[in-house]
Amino acid sequence: MTSVESRVDLDIEAVREIVRKHRNELGGLLAILEEIQSECGFLPAWALKVVAAELRRPLIDVYSVATFYRAFSLQPRGRQTICVCLGTACHVRGGEEVARAFERALGIRAGQTTADGEFTLETVNCLGACALGPIAMVNGRIFSKVQPAKVPEIVEALRRSRHRPALATAST
């Protein structure tokens, strides 16, 4: 995995302040982790250690929550996240080939982020649009009936756009 800088430099005191703000809330740990990730773009290991110490909870408890929820990431994510569905309907329609095409076009494997910090590629078990498969989702925008040969065009268009696409569907 390539190294990508965090989006914001968050220091120990800022993490402690986040913990103090949410310490007594129902679901406080989730709120703490969400805010740290919002500030950093991911959950740095050092921040999880600070959270555990401040909450006087074992690090494994904090780590378990951080790894259980798919919304959290322990690694820096790209500005744009591409999710390729590998659920049953997409799988039988070529989802694996689409995922491999994205890996080739981006020069990374699923679960990694490009060196320029632009893209993170993920695979998911279902995106809930089974009739449109195989599908890929980029920051909420669904690309339906994606063909592996079209993936380089999709990636190039995303590189040119340099902005997060609005929620929409686009047959590809």
Structural write-up:
The protein is 42% helix and 13% strand. The chain starts with 11 loop residues before the first helix and ends with a strand. The chain has 172 residues and is of the alpha/beta class. It has 2 domains: 12-68, no CATH class; 80-171, Glutaredoxin. It contains 7 helices and 5 strands, in the order H-H-H-H-E-H-H-E-E-E-H-E. Mean pLDDT is 87; it is low at 1-7 and 164-172. Strand 4 (141-144), helix 7 (151-161) and strand 5 form a beta-alpha-beta unit. It has helices spanning 12-22, 28-40, 45-55, 59-68, 88-92, 95-106, 151-161; strands at residues 80-85, 119-124, 136-138, 141-144, 169-171. A 5-stranded mixed beta sheet has the order 2-1-3-4-5, with helices on one face.
CATH architecture descriptor of the largest domain: 3-Layer(aba) Sandwich
- The overall number of domains is 2
Which word captures the global form? elongated
Which CATH class of the largest domain is shown? Alpha Beta
Describe the structure using short key phrases.
172 residues, alpha/beta, Glutaredoxin, five-stranded mixed β-sheet, 5 strands, disordered N terminus, disordered C terminus
Strand and helix layout:
Elements: H1 12-22, H2 28-40, H3 45-55, H4 59-68, E1 80-85, H5 88-92, H6 95-106, E2 119-124, E3 136-138, E4 141-144, H7 151-161, E5 169-171
